[in-house]
Specification:
3-stranded antiparallel sheet, 491 residues, Rossmann fold, 21 helices, binds glutamic acid, Glutamyl-tRNA Synthetase, domain 2, mainly alpha
Amino acid sequence: MPASPPPVVTRFAPSPTGELHVGGARTALFSWAYARRHGGQFLLRFEDTDQKRSSKQAEQNILRDLHWLGLTGDNEGEGIPRQSERLDLYHAALAKLKDAGHTYEDNGAVRFKMGQDVSFTDAVYGDVTVPGADLEDFVIQKADGFPTFHLAVVVDDADMHVTHVIRGQEHLANTPKHAALYDALGKPRPVWCHTPSIMNPDGSKMSKRDKAKAARKAAQDATLSQVQDVDQADLAAFLSKDNDSNDIAAAIATQLGLQLPEINVADFQHSGYTPAVLLNYLALLGWNPGDDVERFDLDFLAQHFDFDRIGKSNSKFDRDKLAAFSQDTILKLSPEQWATNLQAHFKDRFPAYVEKLGANFPVFAAAYQERSKTLNDPSVLGRFFVEAPTQYNAKAVKKNLNKNEGEGLKNLQSLRDLLAQQTDWTAQPLHAVIDGAWEALGGKNMGALAQPLRVALTGAAVSPEIGPTLEILGQTETLARIDACLLHCGS
Ligand code: GLU
């Protein structure tokens, strides 16, 4: 009887040198899905052999973002292995390779001898053969005694019984080295699956440096010479491309009111995308389930994901499509679910709204469900709740206040007097006040009353229901905004 194949084991092995970016998240997603699909294991490992650039903080942030996406490693319970804590294993492998005559010393480093042609099969790119003449001997242990990525990744994957290595195609060129190491160590090679790169719409590779690039360009366009909280020398270095600091990029963006491109998973969360939407979109970058199916969840992916539908060509990251997915998802939520999701996001991102809106949060949420593409949008559309308007939309003023010899302004003044006398400042009675005033006007045109009030409160003619809006703003604030509007628009 033929031996049954070993159980599927995949892994995601980030280097904890920065935030989890979308390319890494997609690799993790595919690895997770492949393991689930085949009833196998999905493992995590931190590749921290570059000690200078690695940090525990980065590890924590990567884990935080994976968990936010709903991806957990099956080995998290027993502790995620770190390469820096497994040096004995690499030294043992090195000794074995040395004994078998595969290595030689070179300036304190140890090199692995190549020479033979290497062939391997990639699940996406097919059969690859690299002639020995094109393969250089490569370093497997640095002069500082640390293994290089090549040795560590092979030793670890073999030790963790990884059967399928799924990773970005930038590693395809490393794979002949890895194949040769497996062979020399007498370990069975895994299946390799390299995934195509994720590109910006302009054809450049989507990279963590894109934020710095965008900020640098904006700073140069605006001839910015000083940025708050940024040291002059650091800024100069940033502007002359000596560093790509994301902190400086963020400070420039704040100063210029600029939105930097989202690159990391945390950026998308910050911009108000939900994990479900981001995962769905990421899965479609390079893979599709066929039959024109586009919208699906993690369970679907766990049932359908396979290598045969991963394309070879690079995929473009289309932000409009992501936003359309997001809007479509928001529209399908029940008002209760939308309000709950929104409130959770706002608590974290825009706590001032949650405080101000109190029990009326669902009213606020309902007002913006149809017009929101992200969980952030209501913070822009409904900003007037936490900030009085500083200007008034000219069209709205003309139409709602100035037209018919200032009819709207007159109505606004009468309404102000009524509201000033109001003692019960809650939605229902406030609504009744406006209804009453409307009837007093002959009950002809509700717009001639509610719209001027909206302009005064918001600066434009759009707001949620007027009763709750008044209640949320409170009497003092409402009267102050009406007065400011009468003063500003009434001349
Ligand atoms: N630590 C490597 C990286 O972040 C992982 C390479 C691999 O998956 O083999 O690119």
